[in-house]
Amino acid sequence: MLKISIIIPSYNASDFIEETIQSIVNQNYPNLECIVIDGGSNDGTLDILNKYKGQIMWISEKDRGQSDAINKGLKLASGDIITYINADDVYERGCFQKVTAFFEKSPTVKWVYGKCRIINKDGAEIRRPITWYKNFWQKRYSYNRLLILDFIAQPATFWRKELTDEIGLFDVNQHLAMEYDYWLRTGANYKPGFIDDYLASFRVHRHSRSSVNYSKAAREALDVAKSYARVEKRDFLIPLQYLNYWVVISTYSILRIVSQLTNKLE
Questions:
Q1: Over the chain, what is the mean pLDDT?
Q2: Residue 60 sits in a domain of what CATH number?
Q3: Helices 214-231 and 178-187: crossing angle, nearest 10°?
Q4: Who's near 224: CB < 8 A, 6+ residues apart?
Q5: pTM score
């Protein structure tokens, strides 16, 4: 049975990290390694981690940001299959069995992604149109499309350890688009597999990166996409990359306004 290593980068994540851990340990997958790389939390996160002694491995120390934390976990990971999940996201039941079954049936595939829901702080599904939009493109993968828009959901993406051994670690200079950078680096060499099922849920709340830094994240994603388009001699895609950037900015601006109005009404 393939071993899975899950890395959780965290910092002051006491509101949600226990739910994230439970979504891992409650999978009842017997060959599992959970590694939490904490950035020196002081909000009670470490008390939660101590509750799972024997079920998870964890360290807490200052780091250079999320990419650095993920890289620390990648260096410790011993699994055949590797992934990371943020300390506020969760896995769907049966996720690990579906992922390992795919890799066992597809020995030449280096990485795979599945579908991902978007949930709020209470775990209720939200933003279904965005999920449907991403699901549409996920089923129609091409590297050119990936260069234009990032439709791959990070919590629902897994890869073989040998892939990291080959292409390296995450770019520590990337703080908001590091997974997109990794997908483009990987996709330039290997076509991913796709699992047409929900594997995880991505949480949006007032402190999440997608809520606080959506504009900066979109800009970083655009810069990353342009750099790969130029390296891969696909400059003709750059106008479409800019178009997607403005669509993302407009969409999230509208969502933010709607959220603010809803909070006022409540």
A1: 94
A2: 3.90.550.10
A3: 20
A4: 174, 177, 180, 181, 184
A5: 0.94
